[in-house]
Each structure stands twice: as structure tokens, then as C-alpha cells.
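batch job 7 of whatever, protein = Phosphodiesterase
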Amino acid sequence: MSGRLLDGEDSTSESVEEESSKFDASSGTEEAPQKVDREYEKALARSESRAIFRLKIVLLFVLISVAVAVAVYAHKYAADVQEEEFYNTFQSHGTKLVSGFYEDSFQKLQAMESLSSSVTYLFRDETWPFVTIPDSANFFRPFLALSSAASIRFLPIVGDRQRLQWEEHVLNQQHWIQDAVVEDRSPTATPTDAPSSLPSIATSSQPTTSTSTEPTSMTNSSLPPSGEPKPTSDLLPTTDNNTNRRRRTQYFELDETIRISPYIKSHVGVDTSPGVWTPVWQYSPVVVDNNYYINFNQLVDEQFQLDFPILTEKKNAVIARAESYQQGLDFQSTRDLEFTQEVLRIGGYGTYEAGEPIGFLHYPVFQSSSSRDKVVAILTATVYWKSYFQNILPETAQGIICVVENEDQQFTYKIDGNDATFMGNADLHDPRYDEFEIAAEYKAFQDSDGGEDSTFNRIYTGVPVDESRLNYRIRVYPSQEMADLFLTDEPVVYAIVVAGVMLVAVLVFGVYDWYVEMRQRKVRTVALQSNAIVSSLFPKQVKDKLYGDNDTPTNSKKDAFRRTGKPGSARSLEFPEQSSPGNNGERKAAPIADFFPSATVLFMDIAGFTAWSSSREPSQVFILLETMFSTFDKLALRRRVFKVETIGDCYLAVCGLPEPCEKHALNMVAFARDCLEKTSVLAHQLIPTLGPETGELTVRIGIHSGPITAGVLRGDRARFQLFGDTVNTCSRIESTGKAGCIQCSEECSEQLRAWGKGSWLRKREDKIQAKGKGEMQTYWIMPKGAATVRSGSASTVWMDTSLDGMEEGMKEMNAAKYMLDSSLRESGRDEEDEEAETPATPHIDLYADFNYDILLKSLKAIVAKRNMSKKSASKRLTRTLSGIWQGDAPTSGNAIAASCLDEVVEFIELPGDGDQPIEEWENAAVEIPNKVKDQLQEYCRKIASMYKEDNPFHNFEHASHVTQSSAKLLSRIVSIRDSETFGLAADPLTQFAVIFSSMIHDVDHRGVPNFILAKEDPSMAVHFQHQAIAEQNSVELAWELLMEPRFAALRHTIYMDGIEQQRFRNLVVNCLLATDIFDKDLKAMRENRWHKAFHLTSDEEDLRVQSNRKATIVIEHIIQASDVSHTMQHWHVYQKWNQRLFNEMYKAFVEGRSETDPTGGWYKGELWFFDNYVIPLAKKLEECQVFGVSSDEYLLYAKANRAEWKNKGEEIVQGYADRLKQLLKYQHQEEEKSG
């Protein structure tokens, strides 16, 4: 910017001079005053330009300086805030940690004081040391909780002359550990942890006799370690043999896991040293698998030997030197480590890592609480040093370092929230944070008098802690981890952001200055031109008056467009503020509305959508609409077309507003051609997902140009809307168009011709009748890359629908091959109903892949449920039921009955899990192996190839339609969660079997009924016992194909064993034979079974049998309803398949296979079929109460189609016949020409 300003300082004045000179040259001779004025204006302009330039330079320098200063200040301020927050937070956490340390120490000592007093009081009348704390687990539990100790040990002091009595006391009172084990386990342990039985223990302190024989072995927990002296009779105190025998017998009667040795022990076995002993008598919690420490003489420990005189003579408490245990140093160290780990685990302190400090708090127990002159026992609390620092700081406190030191010990912890982590046996804090140190001494806690100036505001009143053991000191520091949480890069970011904002401000200033400069140049140029013109016409005085009187601002560019009235311009409909009766006289803002003299509107409708959607699930309908409309939106954005709204399957768009565009008609037509082309592509891409008939969908488009009123209609859910005759006319043009065609009005065609696109137009031969407009001449717009014929769904746009036009098209498509087979299947469409127009059958693989997708989804459900089932994939049926197979199912296709009729059962037993919730396996992510997928796809394509595609009706396209209908009905069953579905919703194998049966139900169908087939192929009729010939043939062929070795992986995925295979086979057979609706025996059996299931109830019959019978009936009705689902869907769907069935029957008549012309009885036959089969079947679907709204939908469509057929059927049948006769005539003529 600076360079531009420096180089162009006088650019403004020079340009002004050049522009002025242009007008001066035309003014001829000038008077002196005018020349002086011009020179003065030029000099003034140059002077102002220089001043402005200098001001800009100064302002630029100031902005840059301010940016640098603000960035530096922001960085310093943010850094200071972080450092202060870091310091304050650490001080707060450190002080809280020290206070918590004091509080925890106080709690531990107070707890031990209370425990000591309780023990003294408990045994105030007893003889020491022969005492045992009753119910020790519950006795110690509150003191453990209060002191946060891992364990508490009770050590009576045994004198030299008391040892024999002590060991006798141990034998008599050893039951305490059993009681303690039960108490310790009862609140928390699971039943599997408790011993199965506990021996009865005498509660007396006197020896008991027993007749039990002495065992030959002892548990490891009660004997000294391997290689150490074992207790023998030689080591027993002197007494009679009977006493020894009783003592040993009682000892061995205890449970091995909790037996206590009666002898005072040391590290090497029985302690034989003379003097005083302090055996560990009772402790909590009890380590069941390690009783080694019970009756262990604690005085053998060197550290305890130093502490013992302080406890007994000075009568002070002792905080022992911290100890740690290592693995593998020696046998004793390993035992101590294992015992400590188990104690900490039971106490809830987690896993003890070797080397961590463990503290011991020794507290004296006095014989009398009043005199406290004699110490009779020691209480020892095992303290996990890390517990001093746990549960003190909040979770947000991270990285606090605490160093604990004694005379010759140092160890370090890192505190993170409520937890403390041992770092090592040394001072491991970061020296960089020495200045942050917060120190505290243990003795300060005991010296506190509770005053405000004291370090600790509570007074300890228990036994004094010996001064020689109060050398512990803690020091608290922050760590780099904590610093990283506070001292971040935010100051730098703030500085960069501030600098960036200021830089952007400078750039904005430069851009704004450039824009203003350019604008000013234009304004000055116009002003100079106007001034020159006015000056040349008027004297100076008159000019000044004109300028002084003209206070009206110049019109904007938008106002200029409104005045011109050119195409694409807009005139504002400005209304004054008015009061209305509904707003109590208050003024209301003027409406937001504009009038656009010329714009183009488009209405686009999906042709065939209503019929298509009647056979689809709601989710499939929305998949189609979302896919197509989102694509249209992208095309509209590219073509500068404004999408107004969608109404159902209708898409409304406009071009030329709200943004004016001169080429609005051209853009809209290009958009319509894009949509027409893209619809065909999308429809075929969606075939595997939405079904083959999706490929038949196309769009019907109407376009009109004219004036439009547009604006925002305020109120609830206000939106931009179009009004006027142009919109209504466009709607009429669309509704009178044809599927796959773009129809436009005369006005739109004129716009296209104006832009040189008249070649896109083709005049429609007949005029349309538009409501309120009368006759209108319209034009077809050629689609992209199309001359006359469009391959796709509807009849071609340019091909005449008359017979001559059809003949011409058929010549191009090879009439000899086209006639009678494909022509009979596709002929007879109602050209007057564009939604009934359908294209030729897509490639057979599209139908096969569609069936593959549906079957794959159902197969995944089978695998998902099988994977999540806790039981076996199938259960052997043990009950014998009437009509049900027994034993193992056949494992190959050769071990089946000679006729499928022999396999039809009254009901099929489904798995016994009922209508369990299926969300778990229904939504589970399951991956089917590629090998299985390939086999399933190959099977579907092979089945498709086994259909006779020259059948107009019984072909694979119809089978795919049946598959789609059965899948829809099954989805309704699965979606019902709260009603009874007889086990169908919870059995994916049954669902797969129904869909599988739908796909194969017409395999190798010959295009004639069974009674004609029996005449044409007598051997087949005999083989299938003259019943359901075509249906049994389909089962046999499809099953033999499935049993081929190449489909082994597929079979093993469908069923896991012979039982599942047999159930799958029964389902397929029952389903396919149910499609023979004219066999009297099968029909009678089904009717009887229906009446028995839904109208008769038997208390004697098992409920499971009743449910299975209903399920079997529902399965058969699904396949029956799907087979004739076209009669219970939209009228156009019914018309399509009804015509194809008529063509098939007529084809058989023409070929001489049938003796009856179907034309004569087709009308009444359809009415009979509706009354006696379709509508009763739809009512049964409703009566089953397992299909939700689908049953209502089917019944409504069936009744509507029946009424429509009654009114139009005779005319329609005659149209069928006439069309086929014309086609046959044309075929005959072609054969004569070629022959």
C-alpha cells in the first residue's frame, strides 16, 4: 500500500486534469473567470492529495507502533497472570497437603489411643497376657477405618514364666481366627470365597479332649518354612503326655487353611530363647493363606528391640523407622513382601510395589487405664506411607512432589489428585523449584497447643510420641508437569493474535482506502463531467443555484434497474406503514415483497412415484427423495437457479429472482436437462438398494416464463414464496407433460430463441388444455444427447404413440425378435397415463443383485443372533408333536421325501425364545466372509437364469417383486416390539426362509397353470402326484442347486446342523406350496388350520403348539400376500402386473397351449378373485395383528383397486385384447416380408 501511495501521490490530480481537458477541448474559447476557476480547482485538488497522502503515512506508522506495543503488553500480562496463578495454586495445594498430613497423623494417633483404652477397659478384670479379643474383626474394623492403617496387630507381653500357659491359651483360643475369617468375609466376599464348612471350635480357654487320630501331615501355613526346625514333642513345654496329646489333637482338628501353631516362633522356627516375648496374637484383616505371623515373636526384629524399651519403660508411643520389602533378597524378605502385599490388598490399598516405604506405629496398652503404670501389650498399626498423602487434594491437582526424610532416609511421592505415586528412595524433586519449598516437621504436630498461631489447630491428648522418633520432615515442591499445566504458550498466542488483529486492521484500512480512492475518482470524474456540461450551458450564477437547490441524492444502481423495466430487473412494491383492524391500530412494517417483470419457473415431478412408493417401506421412499433432491440442489446452485421448496415428490425452482439474471430462461432449461439426465443415472444406481422398478422412475418437467410476485409471507414458519399467474400456468404445463419430457410455454421458447437456442425446441403437435387459460401451445425441449429415442423408463419423447409410430420403432429394434415374447409382456400400456409407462426389463443381474442384497441383510441377522446367543445355535426337539418331524434332519439333498407334499406339516416349531428383545443382534455389526457373499450372489444369479424370461408374468422380475413385498411385511413384524408375533420377530432364520422362498417360488415356471402343465408334461405330473406341480418343481430345482458342493459355505452359514437344516427345509416347502391357491386339498388344510388357530382355543393343547401353529399360518400368508401383492398396491402397479398376466394367458392361447381366450372372462374373473381371495386375504393379514399398519394399507388398496376395476375393467380388458391383436397382425406382416 505504501508503494502505491508513494508512486501515485499525484495520480488523482493528474487523472482529474486529463478528464477535465477532454471536456475543456470541446468548450471553444473561454472567459477568464472560468479558466481561473479551473486552475484553482486543480491546484486545490493537488494540495489536498498531498495532505491526505502524508496523513495516511502517519496513520500507518501509528497503527504499526500500536500493534507492536499491544502485542508486547498482551504477552507480558498473560505471562504474569499464568505465573501468579501457578504460584497461588501451588501454595494452596501445598498448604492443604501439609495440613492434611497433620490431620492424618492426628487421626492415626487418636485412633490408636482409643484402641488402647478400649483394650485396657475390655480386659480390666482379666489376667494378662491370657486374653483374646472377642469378635476381633468387628472390634478392629472402626479403628482401621479411623487410622487409615493397612492392618493392626495385637502383641501381648509374655513373661518367661508365662510361656507354657500362653501356649496352652493359644490352643484353647485359636478359634478367634476362624471367627475373624468369617467376619472379614461376610460383608464383602462372594460365596465362592468362603470355605464349604468350618469345624466346631470350643470356646473354653481350657484344653479339650478328642478321640480323633493324629494326621500325618500339617499345612504349610502352620509349620515353619522348609528346612527349618519343626515343632516336635521335644520342644513342647514340660507336661504330661495326655496334655500334649490333647494339645496336638485339638491343633490338628482345625481347618488346615486357618490352623495356628501354638508355639512362639522366630524366623528359624520355634523361639527357644529365654526372656520376654511379644507374640503376634491377633491382627486384622486376617490373611487366611498365611498364618505364619500368628504367635510370631516380634522381639526378634532388631528395630522393634530398640523400640521396645521406649514402649515399656518410657511408656511412649513410637513411630518406627520406615521399612520396605524387596523380592528375592532372602526367604524371610520374600515372605514379608508377600504378607504385606496381601494385607494391603485386603485393606483396599491396591497393589504394593516392592521397595515402597511401610511405616509402623507402636502404641502401649496399659493394665490399668487410671494408673498407666504397667504396659501389658503392644498395638502395632501398619501404615502405608502413601496413605498420608491420599484423598487430600482435589482431582485437578497434578504433579505435586512431596519429599519425606528421616535421619538417614529419604523417599519421594508424586501426588496427582487423590492418589500418591511412589517415585523412589531419594530426594527426587526438581531443583529448579527450590524457592517454592513448603516444609513441615512431624514434631510440630505434637508441639501444637491448638492456638491460632499454631501450625496445627488441634491438641493431641494421647500417649506422647517419643522425641527420638519424631525426626520425620516433609518438603513439598511443584514439578515440571504441574508447571506445564499453567505456564503454557498462551501468552505467545495472545501476542500473535493481537498482532494479527492489528495487521488485519492495517490491511483493512489499506483496502478500504483503495476502495474509497477508486470511488472518489469516479465521483470526481462524474462531477467534473457534469460541471463541464453545466458550465458550458449555464452561467456560473445559474449553475450555483442549480447545485444549491438539488438536494436529492442520486439514484442507486438498483433504482436504475427498476426504472428501465428490462428483463431481470425488479421494481419495489413499497407500501406505507398502515394500521390494520387486527393489531389495535398499531403501525405494521411494510410487507417484504418485490415484483419481478421477467423470471422463469420450473415444476418437476417424479413420474411413477406414487405407484412405486406403494410397494416400498417408508425408509426406502425417503432414501429416493433425499438422493434425488440433494442432487438437484447441487445442480441448481451450479446453474444459479433458486430452489423455492419441495412438496411431496414435486420440486419447485425459479431463476431470475431474487438475484436478477438476464439469462434466466436459458439457465432454467439447462438445469432441467441436467436433472432429466441425472435422474436416469440415479434411478439405476439405486436399483440394488430400492429394487428393480426404481430404474423405471423418471421426471416430468414444466417450465414457464413471465412476471412474478415474490416475497416473504410473514407469520408462523415464514418462507420465500412465489405468486401470480406465471406460477399457476407452470403447474398446468407440468401436469400436462409426459414422463421423461421437458415441456415449456410459448413465452419460455421465445426467450430461448432470443439466446440462439431454438434448436432445443420441438413444437408439440396437440395443444394442451390449461385450467383458466384454455388452449395453450407448448414445446418439447430436447434432452441432452437425444435425437428421437431415450432409453429408459417411459415411451420415447419423440416417438408417436400411434400404431404407425410404434411400428417404426419396432422396425428399428428388430421386430422379428421383439414380437410376441417381449412385446406381449410390455404391450398395452395406457399412453394417456404417464405414470403407467414402464421401460423394458433391466438386465437380469440387476434383479439378482437386488435379491442378493435383501438376502444378505437377513443372513447377517442369522449370524448376529447366533453369535450373541448364550445357548447352542439350535436345540434338539425332544417333544413329539402331531405333524412334526422327529430326530435328526437329513444332511443332504438326497435324504428328502419323494414328494414335497409329504413334507407339508401342520405347523413348524420355532425356537423357544419367543418375542425376546432383538435390538442386540439386529443392530450388531456382523461381517459375512467374502466367500459366503460370493456364493450367495452366484446362487441368486443362477436362480435368475432358471426363470423363463419369455413369460410376461411368471418371470424373475415378478419374483423380485414378491421378494420385495415379503421383505416389507417381515420388516413390519420385526418393527413391532410390544405385541405378540408368535416368535417370528425373534427368529431371523424363519425370515430368511420366507425371503428365500419368495425368490425361488416360480423357478422354471412354464407360463401355464398346473392343469395345463400336467397335460404338457405327464411324467412331471405323476412325479409330483398331480398336485402343486409347478410349485414342487420349483422347490426341487432350487433345493438341488443349493445342495451343490460349490454352495457349501453358504449352506453352513444359513444353518449350523441337521436340525436347523430340516427346519429351514420345512419352512421353504410350506411357503412354496402355499402359493398354489387353487389346490383344493391344500386350501382346505390351510382353512382348517386358520380356524383352529385363530377361532378355537383348547386348554388341553400346549401354548407353545398354539403359538407355532399361528406362526406357520402367518408365514404362509406372508408368501401368499406377497405373491399377489400387486393387487393390494397402487392402481398403476396392479394394472402393470394384471396386464402382464393377461398377456401371458393370451400368449398361451395364441400358441395353442390353452383352449380358452382369456378376454371373455377376464373382467369377471378379476372381480371374483378380489372378492374370494384378495380381500379375504387382506382381512386375514389384519386379523393376525402382527403387521401393524401394513395390513390396513393392503386392505385399503385391495378395495380401491376392486372398485376401480369394476368401473373401468371391461374397457381395459378390451384395450388389452385390441393392442395384442394389432401387435400379432404386425408380426405376421413382418414374417411375410422376411419370408
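notes: The chain has 38 helices and 25 strands.
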